[in-house]
Amino acid sequence: xxxxxxxxxxxxxxxxxxxxxxxxxxxxxxxxxxxxxxxxxxxxxxxxxxxxxxxxxxxxxxxxxxxxxxxxxxxxxxxxxxxxxxxxxxxxxxxxxxxxxxxxxxxxxxxxxxxxxxxxxxxxxxxxxxxxxxxxxxxxxxxxxxxxxxxxxxxxxxxxxxxxxxxxxxxxxxxxxxxxxxxxxxxxxxxxxxxxxxxxxxxxxxxxxxxxxxxxxxxxxxxxxxxxxxxxxxx
Length: 235
Hints:
Strand 5 and strand 6 (78-82) form a beta hairpin. The two termini are 13 Å apart. The chain is globular. The strands form four sheets. The protein has a five-stranded antiparallel β-sheet with strand order 1-15-2-13-14, with no helix packed on it. A five-stranded antiparallel β-sheet has the order 4-3-7-5-6, with no helix packed on it. It is built from three helices and 15 strands. It has helices spanning 30-33, 46-49, 163-172, and strands at 6-11, 36-41, 53-55, 58-61, 68-73, 78-82, 93-98, 104-105, 108-109, 140-148, 153-161, 175-183, 190-193, 206-208, 229-234. By secondary structure, it is mainly beta. The chain has a domain at 6-101 and 183-234.
């Protein structure tokens, strides 16, 4: 996703991060749908994200030094990196979404991505059930977001991935820094919209990146959708 012609925006939800109301929240309103090109899932609920959340001029959860951070600026550009070193607060920052620790740094998976303690990358569902009594599995649905050396955003998602495989995919796609987003079958989703000339993005003209994701083009247009997400819009 080239952030020259595309501008990023963080949408906030009642479940993640909570603490609303927010100006930008589901459903995507007609004014924003007029330029919407793509949308994708955010990160964990804040009680599991081990990081913070800043948007619309408010600290919803305190930002944590070292946490993997998606930073969106007033001009719609974005960056990804470790908070306090790769990225920091400036007057131009409008949103910061943190989730765990960096997955890719210097164009390579971080040592933590390769750890045998894969549960440090989040609690997963079981092979056939997300019931809390069912043991989680290492190779599960995961999603991630990276940034290339020239500032493009790269989204990766898929089933049966461990953290290192997700990191490898992001690095192979050109990400020099990357973070894990949400995991498990219900949450990862990336949608593109292709409305008719002069029309607006809508569920009817959206298409999933992966047909097997539980969510789809309708998700971001539902008022009940309570999770945070990111949109990419034509400038």
